[in-house]
């Protein structure tokens, strides 16, 4: 591992370490020192790569939202018609609620920051817009907005429930929302 400013992976390690630390301890417990230690970089690297802690958090959460949008794309990109898109949405809920507790925690941390800070609210608005764009390839804009909220809500409910609901209930919820959708295929 390179130790000078020529280390091309240093900034990436810092961002990854930031997300890992937030997932484990919460954003309220994150600090430059803890992140630098976790990333294996000198403390001075933090201010070399980021203008401040807020800049680092925004970069880290931007990386996180890019990841979640890519998960949306992975599930929805191959759907050829509305029925396949409905199946993909149901699969997405189950993938998000079962596969990665880290992503669930990071999403909730971002939502908490967004509830308090306008800069993070803008980040969540952009995230929602990008997610809805994937849904709008298959559904009208109002239905896409409803499905986006359904994905968020059902994901959280499934992840936190003692006995998570099954895929049939998820698919039924998707069917109910999409029953009044505009054109049958987009």
Automatic annotation (TrEMBL):
Gene3D superfamilies: Tetracycline Repressor, domain 2 (1.10.357.10). Coiled coil: none annotated. Residues 8-68 form the HTH tetR-type domain. This is DNA-binding transcriptional regulator YbjK. InterPro entries: Homeodomain-like_sf, HTH_TetR, Tet_transcr_reg_TetR-rel_C_sf, TetR_C_31. It holds the Pfam family TetR_N. PROSITE patterns: HTH_TETR_2. Residues 31-50 bind DNA. Keywords: DNA-binding, Transcription, Transcription regulation. One of its GO terms (molecular function) is DNA binding.
């Amino acid at each position: 591992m390179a130790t000078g400013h020529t280390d091309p992976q240093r900034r990436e390690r810092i961002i990854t370490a930031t997300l890992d630390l937030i997932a484990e301890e919460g954003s309220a417990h994150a600090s430059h020192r803890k992140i630098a230690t976790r990333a294996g970089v000198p403390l001075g690297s933090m201010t070399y790569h980021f203008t401040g802690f807020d800049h680092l958090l925004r970069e880290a959460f931007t990386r996180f939202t890019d990841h979640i949008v890519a998960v949306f794309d992975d599930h929805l990109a191959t759907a050829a018609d509305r029925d396949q898109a409905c199946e993909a949405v149901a699969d997405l809920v189950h993938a998000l609620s079962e596969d990665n507790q880290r992503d669930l925690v990071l999403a909730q941390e971002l939502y908490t920051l967004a509830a308090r800070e306008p800069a993070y609210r803008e980040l969540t608005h952009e995230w929602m817009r990008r997610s809805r764009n994937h849904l709008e390839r298959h559904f009208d804009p109002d239905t896409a907005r409803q499905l986006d909220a359904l994905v968020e809500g059902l994901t959280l409910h499934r992840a936190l429930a003692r006995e998570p609901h099954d895929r049939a209930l998820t698919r039924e919820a998707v069917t109910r929302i999409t029953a009044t959708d505009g054109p049958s295929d987009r």
